[in-house]
Amino acid sequence: MTNHWNDIQHADAILIMGSNAAENHPISFKWVNEARAKRGAKLLNVDPRFTRTSAVADHYARIRSGTDIAFLGGMINYAIRNNRINWDYIRDYSDAAYLVNPDFRGAADLDGVFSGLKGSTYDKSTWSYQTDENGVPKRDETMQDPNSVFQLLKKHYARYTPEKVCELTGTDPKDFETVCDVFTATYLPEKSGTIMYAMGTTQHTYGSQNVRAFSVLQILLGNIGVAGGGINALRGESNVQGSTDHGALYHILPGYLKYPKASEQSLAVYNTNNTPKSNDPMSINWWGNTPKYMASLLKAWWRDADLETGYSYLPKIDDTTNYSYLPIFNEMARGNIKGMFAWGMNPAVGAPSARLIRRALAKLEWLVAIDLWETETSAFWQKEAGVDPSTINTEVFLLPAAASMEKEGSVANSSRLAQWRYKAVNPPGRAEDDLAILTMLVNKTKELYAKEGGAFPDPILNLSWNYGKLGLDGKIHHPSPREVAKEINGFFLVDKEVDGKLYKAGDMVPGFPALQDDGSTCSGNWLYCNSISDTENRMMRRDTSDPTGLGFYHNWAWCWPMNRRIIYNRASVDKKGQPFAKDKPVIWWSPLKKAWLGDVPDGGGGPGAKHPFIMVPHGRAQLFSASMTDGPFPEHYEPLESQVRNTISAAQVSPVIMRWDKKVQEEVCDPMLVEGCNAAVFGCEEAPEFPIVCTTYRVVEHWQTGQMTRWLPWLTELVPNQFVEMSEEFAKEKGIRNGELVRVTSIRNREGIIANAYVTKRFKPFTINGETVHQVGMTWHFGYKGLVTGANANDLSPFVGDANTMIPEYKAFLVNVEKVRR
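Above: the chain's sequence. Below: its structure in token form.
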């Protein structure tokens, strides 16, 4: 989240799209309702299904799954056509006035694609700004030049007319106009609108561009960095924010540092390749500090090694290989991965084309599953999984883990707020917390390398792992999360003077501006610098005072970066440092104190001294982004599986989504598993025998793959069965009554899965281009282990992902539904 949970109370309009926040993030509605009660805020909900969020919304607009960019593109076009643009904001704080390479051609010129398309990749050389003799982007302050970002944006979205949008999305034109009118009214400087989204936005082959479309809209309205504004991701688990912050994704290290590639064999080369440059003297370009953050991370992990040696210890990933979720299982299915740790993960249920995943697990030599109960992943070899155990050679280890109340540590929520959670009771039996399990693995691995050697034992033998008491056996015992937290914050390794102040070896780093690139500081994650001081763990704070009355609560826990509650908050003030919205200021400049007051300011300098978007090299918000794989502007494409033709352009699907070539598919697929490997597992653009749109979602009674909740009696009593939710119209057409058994099939699973029909008014058929399109929905909480079991919806979903992140396309694929005949 760019803002924070309680900041929602300052919004004048709230757009919830791709999220059922009322059910899946219920605490957020405390602040949604606060905004409605105190500010008269309007709640807008856009969703394929009439959810609990829809039920309390002021305005609800139904949308066909997978058409978010068409809808948002129409909103952007509405704002431009109706002059609902915060002109001062986009001129001063965005790249709207920048001039783009004259050789660039957009989707409006090339019928759905951008210049540079070569096969399934883009040459992005034309996706660039024009620069002056100093290398600073050229600007047209009037934003009338046809090569200006604003004019290119205007041209791009002029195609997204209300008629075209509603034709594609199935949205009622009046509902679409109402959403546009209410939300774009927040372009006024004293107003603000916030967007709340979740997996309904991201789990598409263009999920990243869905979020980009939010960004474009919010920049045009001036809603970034302001109270009651922002683009706020409602994360799928309580500590997903923390896990990504600390480098759980394959392509990043802690603090979102880029992972070294095979071509970057020296630290100097890595720093050169991954440290952005800016020639604009008003740009802070905070990523320019990458060498300091990388050096401090290396010293956290290998305290006694020099920087170059520490860097050599880091594994390097192949320059062109994708190691994300789907490719990993693709390689596993080919027999190229020998072992796997499933740490609180249940891919046998949660991954797309889950039957393929379970077959891939059988190619492993060993599997370690660490969880509270036996999961489908740890039991993939059992008869319940539909296999003969005697044919499975994988050795499986199931390690009992501690539950959240049986361990302590920090948990970072969606708003970047890191709060310390305390241990209430000891775990049962032989269960251990994650840090203890990791420490045992480190101890044993070090012991084996010391005894037996290996190709390159140094990274393991020299790894700094000083999180507990050193026993007589030379091993760490009873590791402490509090010691880990200190290393994450970072401390000085030698006496060092920084900005005129002398720090002693062992002193906590006061904030990331004090990190050094010479090896004198260590920090496990630069973003979390300032979370620990020499006297306190700030994540443990529970002070409810709020001197500003604006809901910052700076002494309640701690928020990255630097306890800043609203990111890019210098975009909330004019060039004199005074807030645009006087009744809900985020920061303001005090001429008397010569300092910013309010929230922790985003970057240094007084009013007008520096551009506010400090993480962007040129310092301004990006309407035009060359960093995306699939285009500098979001463009509508259909889901990979769709029975609707794209009428915005001739490009039916994104040309650069990752697909596996036929040879790989033949190696991965078992012809006995499904018929027609090429389409069956990896998705099919033509599947007329599967005419129904299917989406997956959650219910409040269950959690993720059900690996925890299906073992809890009270919750299983509430929702004991898998179900297929469908409209009354569709049920009547098929002769299906509520509660009856139905078979759901897809091109990946012609045998289908059996579930109960759940006939409701929440789904309605769409009329698209004069034809009726039905949609159904299923939860993804069920599998073959637990107190209750049920069919897995992901036995139907396609093995295809977003062009940028490879997140799977769970939210829109094709199925057929038939009544089970007895």
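The chain is about 25% helix and 15% strand.
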